[in-house]
């Protein structure tokens, strides 16, 4: 048996975590041979509810669950953490954009970035789920100067999965036939799901659908899917978000499949002309516990405009929180 790794999860008594923690403890994120210690962070008033979640985790008798820490202190939650899933943040309601949450949520990520910097394993892998995810990841990253910025990522895997399913349904195939999906940019309504490189059974996806459907139906449906879930459910996506978080971390830790890639919000090195230092969603390949942006994809004018629009929004969000960016 491997030695246990420490996985910090914030917002651990919230709705996403209720779908997430049990799957992590079952080995679905890091592998069925990897014991985990869960280090769970909540705000003080939610510690009672968190105790209930911890009791249920105990009651599952997971062989891989090597310990549970419950705390309202970020310094305790991130102590020696090898992985962190930053979920704890306010969700949006009907009629809101995710960036409307910036004011309510941004401060959480400066505090947690500092606590990660001061306490976590220097090799920690961080995934930000709480919205607006890309800019919250930027805030956490900038408040952790001793940690390589590549170790802070934001979740666009849910968008990636949504884009795969919508394409499979349109083409009468299954998601097993869809490869090389790309979400560019922000986890927001400006994100750009790109079908120019995606394939369905080896054929280029953009050639299998008509441009009017792509522009008028597909792109807006993927961009607005989160809002559609809120409208239908009266609460934002939870199980599918947890599933995407598991998939993001699993790809990063254990690698992506040969001949395929995933979408991850990562620290921009300037690839594809995107401003350096933004947390921007790119197509990524993962190997040996590290990610790499897929290079050399051809970008036409249609794609370039959309990639620039979502970059512009990220630059505006960054400027709106400049007081939290040391
Ligand atoms: N990136 C993505 O694709 C997605 C992101 N989200 C976002 O994930 C976040 C969480 O969503 P839910 O679990 O549905 O919300 P929720 O409201 O059910 O749970 C959030 C939990 O975070 C806790 N919390 C608040 N401030 C905290 C802090 N400073 N430290 C630790 N815990 C704190 C709350 O007490 C609450 O228990 C929201 O911001 C939501 O918009 C949701 C779906 C997809
Ligand atoms: O839409 C929301 O507010 C929650 C979320 O990020 C998503 O479902 O993609």
TrEMBL record:
Ranges for domain Lactate/malate dehydrogenase C-terminal: 156-321
Lactate/malate dehydrogenase N-terminal domain mapped to chain residues: 5-152
Catalytic site: 187
PROSITE patterns listed in its UniProt record: MDH
InterPro entries tied to this protein: L-lactate/malate_DH (IPR001557), Lactate/malate_DH_C (IPR022383), Lactate/malate_DH_N (IPR001236), Lactate_DH/Glyco_Ohase_4_C (IPR015955), Malate_DH_AS (IPR001252), Malate_DH_type2 (IPR010945), NAD(P)-bd_dom_sf (IPR036291)
Binding site for NAD(+): 11-17, 105, 112, 129-131
Keyword Oxidoreductase: yes
Keyword annotations: NAD, Oxidoreductase, Tricarboxylic acid cycle
EC number in record: 1.1.1.37
Gene3D superfamilies attached to this UniProt entry: Lactate dehydrogenase/glycoside hydrolase, family 4, C-terminal, NAD(P)-binding Rossmann-like Domain
UniProt keyword annotation of Transmembrane helix present: no
UniProt catalytic activity: (S)-malate + NAD(+) = oxaloacetate + NADH + H(+)
GO BP of this protein: malate metabolic process; tricarboxylic acid cycle
Name of the top EC class for this enzyme: oxidoreductase
GO molecular function: L-malate dehydrogenase (NAD+) activity
Binding site for substrate: 92, 98, 131, 162
Family as reported in the entry's similarity comment: Belongs to the LDH/MDH superfamily. MDH type 2 family.
General function of this protein: Catalyzes the reversible oxidation of malate to oxaloacetate.
NCBIfam families: MalateDH-SF1, PRK05442.1
PANTHER family hit by this protein: MALATE DEHYDROGENASE
Full protein name: Malate dehydrogenase
Natural source organism: Porticoccus litoralis
Gene name of this polypeptide: mdh
